[in-house]
Each structure stands twice: as C-alpha cells, then as structure tokens.
Amino acid sequence: MTVDTLTVKKDEDYFSLKYSYQLQNDNSNLEEQFIIPDKKFSLNVNLHINGTKLHTTDYGSLVEAIGHSFVECRYWKHIDMNTSLFIRGDKTTSFSLDLECNVSTPIINDLLDMKYAFPNSINLLSSIDLDFHFNTFQPKLQLADIVDALNYSLGSLFINLEFKFPFVFSFYGRKLFKTNYNWLFRNLDEMLCSSPANLPSVIHNKNEAFLQSMKNIQLKALAEYNTLSIMKECDMSGSKLDACKKYRSRFLDSGLPPTPNLSIKAMVFDLQLFDLKYIESHLNIESIT
Predict the structure, then answer these.
(1) What is the structure's pLDDT at 287?
(2) Which residues on neighbouring strands pair with residue 36, listed in sequence order?
(3) Global pTM?
(4) Using CA atoms, how far apart are residues 19 and 27, in angstroms rounded to an integer?
(5) pLDDT in the model for residue 1
(6) Can you tell me the distance from the alpha carbon of 148 to that of 199, in angstroms, rounded to the nearest whole number?
(7) What is the pLDDT of residue 66?
(8) Residue 87, exposed/middle/buried by CB under 10 A (0-12, 13-18, 19+)?
(9) Cα Rg of the chain (Å, integer)
C-alpha cells in the first residue's frame, strides 16, 4: 500500500514524502488487528534531490552523514528500539535502518502462540519504504533546508503512523502496551479461574481474553495515548503542561531514567530525527552546490 502522506511548498522549495509498508499477512482491515513489529524490521529510505536519487556510489559522504544522524537520533531510544544502519552499494536504496523492538521482541513467542490460535488477530509489520523528494529553484542548495524538510516530513509521518500502528511508532501507545502486558500476563490466569464457570459472558480462553484486552488498550491508545492527544491536553491544562515540562527537564534533558510508576501522559519524547550540526560535522560543509 502506497500513500502520498505529505507535499509542501516553502518559498522556492518543494518537498514530498511517500511511504509503503509490508505486513506479514496482507489484510486491509487493520482496525481489527493487533499489529506489532516483526523480530527485526526494516525502514528503507530513498532520498531524491532535484530529481536525482542519492546513493552511496555518487553521494557517499552525504548519504552516510544523513543516515548516521537518523539512526543515532534520540527518538529510537525513546520508543525503545535498537537500530543499526545499512548502506547498500547497489543503488536500490539510499540507506536502510534495521530496527529491533525491545518491547515486543522479548515476548514474541507468546504473541506468536496467540497468532497461531487466532491468525487474523495479530499481524507483524515487516518493513516500511520511504521516498523523500526535495526540489528547489534556488541557485544554491542549502543543507539546512533539506534537513528541515526531512524533519518536518518524517516527523509528521511518524505522528500519523501512531494512528495506524500505535504499538510500533507511538511513544505513548508503546508505553501503555508494555505496562498493561506485564499486568495482564501476571493476573489473567487468576482472574479467569476465579470467575464463575456458568456465566456465559466469562471468557475462559486466556489467549482470547488477552487479545480482547489488547484491542481495548489499542483503542485507548488511538483515542488518548498518542502525541496529538497529549499535545491537546497540554494546551488545555496548565498543570499537564507543567508536568510535561518537568519531565523534560528532569529526565529527557539529563538522560536520567524516569521514575517508576510515573504517569505515561506526563512523559515527553524527542522527535528531532536529523541533526544539522551532526551532518555538517561529518561533511564539513554548510551547503551543497
């Protein structure tokens, strides 16, 4: 499935972003599925500037600098993903990120057992392909403009993907999943065993009960535990905004681990995906002619 997610004109610059994704089981009814990352999945990025595709053969320094900036940004750590950069020499992609989820991978066997029992309930995200195009009529191509466009485009995309894959790209949705998964798995057996067996509304299958609970949590993530909803709450509540600012000051900026049992909605994360100074330091230039 391919979608034109964004096309923007800024002064003399035009940029756009397209994406496609691959699921293990092709099923258009995503709302009925509980989607998690595969054990390892890829984010494949193609960069095009003024109609020219950037690849390592002809633009190695620039591709490597942008790729390394992307793979080392704090966003991946904040959503609990391990990343590694892979740059091919065959011009098929500008670069790829291999991602490993620290939330779902440790419990993947449990989830696969549930998928075996209910094949249409759980799906795995295998890969996402991104095509970024930047075009300008300016006589001199500014690296800062490209980096700004990349941050705007991909940041907007990841916020959008929170509503399609909340347990893959949503900082808040993934926190909600991780917290509730541990509680459910510890307590579900006891809850089911203590329920009267003659009540027809009681679900006696643990996998079915778990999946239903996860779907409810997914609905909660889509409605409340996502970046846009948290931003709206901060706009409407001074105390909520103060809590988020305090979290940034105490934990995000300092690098200290968050306090246990801290409210998920009081947390914040960094969505700067590309750092201009980092890229310039690896290129030692300020613009590309």
Answers:
(1) 43
(2) 124
(3) 0.88
(4) 17
(5) 67
(6) 58
(7) 96
(8) middle
(9) 21
In one-letter notation, the amino acid at residue 200 is: P
Residue for token pair 């020499």: 89
Secondary structure (H, E, C), 105-156: HHHHHHHHHHHHHCCCCEEEEEEEEEEEEEEECCCCEEHHHHHHHHHHHHHH
What is the end-to-end Cα distance of the chain in Å, rounded?
35
Q: According to the model, what pLDDT value does residue 28 have? A: 59
Burial (CB < 10 A; 0-12, 13-18, 19+), residue 164, is middle
Residues in the chain where the model's pLDDT stays below 50 = 198-203, 286-287, 289
Q: What is the pLDDT of residue 228?
A: 96
Query: How many domains does the chain divide into?
Result: 1
Identify whether the C-beta of residue 55 lies closer than 8 Å to the C-beta of residue 166.
no
Tokens of 167: 């347990």
Helices (H), the chain: 56-71, 74-78, 108-117, 143-161, 166-169, 171-193, 206-223, 227-236, 238-247, 276-283
Please give the backbone phi and psi of residue 247, each rounded to the nearest 5 degrees, phi first. Answer: -60, -45
Q: Which amino acid is at 86?
A: F
Backbone torsions φ then ψ of 284, nearest 5 degrees: 60, 35
- For 245, the token pair is 């600012």
Q: Whose structure tokens read 């800062």?
A: 144
* d(C-alpha 101, C-alpha 83), whole Å: 9
Domain holding 240, by residue range, is 1-288
CA distance to 33, 51, 111, 116, 235, per residue, from 121 (Å)? 5, 41, 10, 9, 36
Return the DSSP state at 96. Answer: E
- Please state, in angstroms and rounded to a whole number, the distance separating the CA atoms of residues 84 and 96: 8
Question: CA angle 253-37-109, nearest 5°?
Answer: 115
What is the number of alpha carbons within 13 Å of residue 135 lying toward its C-beta?
10
